[in-house]
Automatic annotation (TrEMBL):
Belongs to the NAD(P)-dependent epimerase/dehydratase family. GDP-mannose 4,6-dehydratase subfamily. It is an enzyme of class 4 (lyase). The lineage of its organism: Eukaryota, Viridiplantae, Streptophyta, Embryophyta, Tracheophyta. Residues 1-20 are annotated as: Disordered. Pfam families: GDP_Man_Dehyd (PF16363). This is GDP-mannose 4,6-dehydratase. Keywords: Lyase, NADP. Signal peptide: none annotated. InterPro entries: GDP_Man_deHydtase, NAD(P)-bd_dom, NAD(P)-bd_dom_sf. Gene3D superfamilies: NAD(P)-binding Rossmann-like Domain, UDP-galactose 4-epimerase, domain 1. It comes from Rhynchospora pubera.
Length: 369
């Protein structure tokens, strides 16, 4: 078994692991997820475990523990034979690690969610972004192709690939990427199509529009806003610095979107699918909804800071997910205002805990734990 969590001191360590395999005669499906520690990785893990899967996740080495989003799922393999989620060290920049884990786990399905996923940061580290997002997908496809059994492959594509193509964007809309991140995702998209055509692999591209949740990284605009709403409401900060407020996005709930990933790999034939709510809102509308929900006026708090503007912007995204709705029978359950409420409620609770620590003198209000 893999992935040890030393529960005695609250730390969790992923041990160098031996080869895990389902018990003989066990018909349970096995999935391998890259990017398991990210927002989508945690929701997809919950989704697959609820369907009876054994889930293996590849995590990268970090100087701090990076498994916080999985803590509630984690079962210490020392204490329980029931651990159905196992973690292994690998990196999308290291082909040998990918090949080794694919070969030893021999999953039925591989979900490639790992990425340097921040669009603005991709302008700062373009070379690294291209390596992990673009070439990383190619490395993983190659590992899957060379495995001694057929494995179904999911590629986490993005609406950012459409870039400046006007909405509504569907599977047939042209790509016009506007960032190193988006260009690398376009490369990963075409690698996936090419492996499907060249090697008859069951490989699918999900072209997912923005999806958010209480687990969203705190430097994406929605979570940055809802975290600030919680902290402003509790008196822990007064200002929120943002960039372009006029960009429009099609924002859905991450929990709904991981279901679509799974559905793509359950079809008779592989394909590419746009996944979207088909409703678009500007960043300003998100501000209005989030601050308004907490009884605040965003105009009293938001300050525009040039540093958050991007060298090239994606102005307007709104998906046409007709294909996913008709073929996969998928549709989103959580709408825009419910999503905003879910995120603000979560972040008000976090702010309340921070407030207790600040009041007791254990935390500086500028700090975020
Ligand atoms: P996150 O940024 O939350 O998670 C990214 C994951 O990739 C993390 O687990 C991260 O590890 C891991 N990772 C980063 N670099 C490497 C590397 N070099 N090797 C191995 N793992 C690495 O992203 P989301 O969960 O939001 O998104 C999942 C995928 O879907 C990404 O590919 C993203 O680009 C794509 N996508 C996301 C959309 C969205 O709206 N959320 C929309 C469309 C596509 P660590 O935790 O250590 O940082
Ligand atoms: P995006 O998400 O670039 O769409 O990529 P993000 O939340 O970063 O930006 C959305 C829009 O908000 C504007 N914006 C700001 N963005 C951030 N991060 N911080 C700010 O302060 C700020 N102010 C304004 C941005 O300019 C942009 O227009 C996300 C990621 O999850 C990608 O990995 C994924 O592929 C796409 O969604 C679909």
């Amino acid at each position: 078994t893999n992935g040890t969590k030393d529960s005695s001191n609250g730390t969790h360590e992923v041990a160098p692991s031996s080869i895990p395999r389902s018990i003989v005669g066990d018909q349970r499906k096995v999935a391998l997820i890259t990017g398991i520690t990210g927002q989508d990785g945690s929701y997809l893990t919950e989704c697959l475990l609820s369907k009876g899967y054994e889930v293996h996740g590849l995590i990268r080495r970090s100087s701090n523990f990076n498994t916080a989003r999985l803590d509630h799922i984690y079962v210490d393999p020392h204490n329980s034979a029931k651990a159905r989620m196992k973690l292994h060290y690998a990196d999308l920049s290291d082909a040998s690690s990918l090949r080794r884990w694919v070969d030893s786990i021999l999953p039925d399905e591989v979900y490639n969610l790992a990425a340097q996923s921040h669009v603005a940061v991709s302008f700062e580290i373009p070379d690294y972004t291209a390596d992990v997002v673009g070439t990383g997908a190619l490395r993983l496809l190659e590992a899957v192709r060379l495995a001694p059994k057929p494995i179904r492959y999911y590629q986490a594509g993005s609406s950012e690939m459409f870039g400046s193509t006007p909405p509504p964007q569907s599977e047939t809309s042209p790509f016009h990427p506007r960032s190193p991140y988006a260009a690398a995702k376009v490369a990963a998209h075409w690698y996936t199509v090419n492996y499907r055509e060249a090697y008859d692999m069951f490989a699918c591209n999900g072209i997912l529009f923005n999806h958010e949740s209480p687990r969203r990284g705190e430097n994406f605009v929605t979570r940055k806003i809802t975290r600030a709403v919680g902290r402003i409401k509790l008196g822990l900060q007064t200002k929120l610095f943002l960039g372009n407020l006029s960009a429009a996005r099609d924002w859905g709930f991450a929990g709904d979107y991981v279901e679509a990933m799974w559905l793509m790999l359950q079809q008779d034939k592989p394909g590419d699918y746009v996944v979207a709510t088909e409703e678009s809102h500007t960043v300003e509308e998100f501000l209005q909804a989030a601050f308004g929900y907490a009884g605040l006026d965003w105009k009293d708090h938001v300050v525009i800071d040039e540093r958050y503007f991007r060298p090239a912007e994606v102005d307007s995204l709104r998906g046409d997910s007709t294909k996913a709705r008709s073929v996969l029978k998928w549709k989103p359950k959580v709408g825009f205002h419910d999503l905003v409420a879910m995120m603000v409620d979560n972040d008000l609770e976090i702010a309340k805990k921070e407030k207790v620590l600040v009041t007791a003198g254990y935390m500086n209000p500028q700090q975020q734990p």
